[in-house]
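User: Hello, can you help with two protein structures?

Assistant: Certainly.
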Amino acid sequence: MSTPRELMNDPAMEPDARRHDVYWRSCLRIVAAILTVWAGLSLGCGILFRKWLDENLPTIGHAPFGFWMAQQGAIIGFVVLLLVYMVLMNRLDDAHGFGGDDE
């Protein structure tokens, strides 16, 4: 698999095709990272490590931390991940000339 830097320097590819491949690979990398964090938050904190979180972290309100993460924390984390995705994709779009500035 070629890295984005190798794709940009490949003389056999057209410049537009190179730019598209680099953009697409970067986009997939961002999506994979966001999905990994989301899986860790929802599955890890809500199910796999819930007992450890309950025993080792303070309570929030009157609920153990693991229970709170399963019920509310994963939702809040998901919304934060949406915002992070928006910022990262806007930066990627601007870097590759796809930004839609309405000035």
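That covers the first. Now for the second protein you mentioned:
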Amino acid sequence: MSDHPTVALLNDKFGEQHCQRVDHHGQVTITIPKSILLEVLTFLYEDGKSKNYKQLSDLAGIDYKGYPGDKDRPRFAVRYQLLNIDENIRIAIKVACAKEDMTVATATTLYHGAGWMEREAMEMFGFDFEGHQDKRKLLLNELFDGKFPQRKTYPVTGEGERDSFTPITRETS
């Protein structure tokens, strides 16, 4: 395991039982319960000792269906990639979600740029970001209502949505 300056601070503040660490190719990911997500993000954003992670570089949904050990974990997760610009230190925070409860607190209160990323995760995976102020569709039209194309159970060729579009040809354009 690599030595990451923030891991000990998270363990001290929230307890090792709430912070499951994984190191993969030099990237540290901490999985936490979603009940403390905002508290952890606020700590990382505001607390000077925690290295001031002021930038949310990425927010992504994950579907673990078919992963090794997928029976031992909730099927979905949301991963937050945070960056301390001053010291070029990165850490990822991940929360797991069961298919029956895809609700996660919004991070827009701290990271204004999270709005677009959360909208994409809502639309593509079906997450519900509680407290998000703008839940309009971002990428897909009404043919995809109730359908989540980034889930692994969604067919690669779609569910007939493509058949509803009028083909554009030279003659019709």
